[in-house]
Design a protein that fits this description.
The chain is an alpha+beta fold. It has 3 domains: 48-67 and 188-232, Dna Ligase, domain 1, CATH 3.30.1490.70; 68-187, DNA ligase/mRNA capping enzyme (D-amino Acid Aminotransferase, Chain A, domain 1, 2-Layer Sandwich); 234-340, Nucleic acid-binding proteins (OB fold (Dihydrolipoamide Acetyltransferase, E2P)). The protein has helices at residues 96-103, 127-133, 166-176, 195-204, 278-289; strands spanning 50-51, 61-65, 70-77, 80-85, 110-117, 147-156, 159-160, 185-187, 209-214, 227-231, 234-245, 253-262, 265-272, 306-307, 313-318, 320-321, 327-328, 331-336. The strands form 4 sheets. Strands 3, 4, 5, 6, 7 and 8 form a 6-stranded mixed β-sheet that branches. Strands 11, 12, 13, 14, 15 and 18 form a 6-stranded antiparallel β-sheet that branches. Strands 1-10-9-2 form a 4-stranded mixed β-sheet, with helices on one face. A hairpin with a 5-residue loop joins strand 16 (320-321) and strand 17. The longest helix has 12 residues, at 278-289. The radius of gyration is 24 Å and the shape is globular. The chain starts with 49 loop residues before the first strand and ends in a 12-residue tail after the last strand.
């Protein structure tokens, strides 16, 4: 937990060892205009990264590590701290350490954009560990392990920065959250590097991937291409439409049957049978048992399949797609919380 700044051991002294006193404030010149202040927005729709296979080229792009967690906006307001999810839900109570750290930032009002993550022993963000710290999908626990990786500043001491270029916003953010800090709010540092080399290095260290951002772009809500994500391993969200039993597997779940969206329908895209651990397998089995149905939500030709209502969204890592539209080398990462507003993969 972030500690408050230590108070000086003695007062500031002048040359005569007397306490320094500020000069009397001069009266404002009536001819001098007041600097206008922008009203603080209640919420800002986040800028989202567009998935690309390769990093972009050119000096107009800067890079960061891609963090695997929950997207959050930290609002520092005159009345206190608010921490909002991507869909706008107030999760302040679920991240007490981040809230405390925000209280000690040297700013009156601000909105920070970033990602709540839990780091593993190698310093990599681990979505499963984050979910576990919050009590799993639908859990109500608060996480004292999560830290906030700040990567943008949208509002700063009365001024809306949305129309400012990324370079300007980052300059102010780095003054507010210095690089190299180890508190509960840390800077997601920009990396000056060749995109291909950085991606190769990220994959070598088993990171999820990298983010590319256009230097001169304002902050635009939505997935418009100002930010790009390039992944080492593909990772997307799919709907569970059924499962297959195995007496030898944890929770007796041998395989989850998955679907993607295609227009208004769901299309079967194969299954996943790896990536479960003891705890999440039994929790998942309990949820599946409560969703059984005799009507499959997608066309699945699997003997012995147990169908469920399409209510659970799962995050899956995979290497590629087969020619007939099925996932290759899929691995289970965890259930997405419906409050995280995860987007289900859309088939072309």
């Amino acid at each position: 937990m972030t500690k408050p700044p230590r108070k000086p051991s003695k007062p500031l002294l002048g040359e005569a060892e007397a306490p320094l006193r500020s000069r009397p404030r001069r009266r404002r010149d009536p001819a001098q205009p007041n600097l206008p202040l922008d009203p603080m927005p209640d919420r800002i729709e986040p800028c989202l990264a567009l998935l690309k296979a390769k990093p972009p080229k050119g000096d107009d792009w800067v890079y960061e590590i891609k963090w695997d967690g929950y997207r959050l906006a930290v609002h520092i307001e005159p009345t206190g701290i608010r921490i909002l999810t991507r869909s706008g839900l107030d999760w302040t109570h679920r991240f007490p350490a981040i809230k405390q750290a925000a209280m000690w930032l040297p700013v009156g009002t601000a909105i920070l954009d970033g990602e709540a993550v839990v780091l593993d022993e190698q310093g990599r963000s681990d979505f499963g560990l984050l979910q576990q710290s919050l009590g799993g999908r639908g859990g109500k626990k608060s996480s004292s392990e999560a830290i906030f990786m700040a990567f943008d500043l949208l509002y700063f001491d009365g001024h809306d920065l949305g129309k400012s270029e990324l370079d300007v916003r980052r300059h102010l953010l780095e003054d507010l959250v210095p690089a190299g800090g180890q508190g509960d709010i840390r800077l997601s540092e920009e990396i000056e590097a060749d995109g291909d080399q950085l991606l190769a290095s990220a994959c070598k260290h088993r990171l999820e991937g990298i983010i590319a951002k256009r230097r001169g772009a304002p902050y635009r809500s939505g997935r418009l291409g100002d930010w790009l994500k390039i992944k080492c391993v593909q990772s997307d969200s799919f709907v569970i439409v059924g499962w297959e039993r195995s007496t030898a597997a944890r929770g007796q779940i041998g395989r989850l049957l998955l679907a993607a969206r295609k227009g208004k329908s769901l299309v079967y895209v194969g299954g996943v049978g790896t990536g479960f651990n003891g705890r999440n397998a039994y929790d998942l089995r309990e949820k599946l048992d409560g969703l059984k149905t005799s009507t499959p939500a997608a066309a699945v030709d699997r003997k012995g399949a147990i169908f469920v209502k399409p209510k659970l969204i799962v995050e899956i890592e995979y290497r590629a797609w087969t020619h007939d539209g099925k996932l290759r080398h899929a691995s289970y990462k965890g259930l997405r919380d419906e409050q995280d507003n995860a987007a289900v993969y859309e088939m072309a």
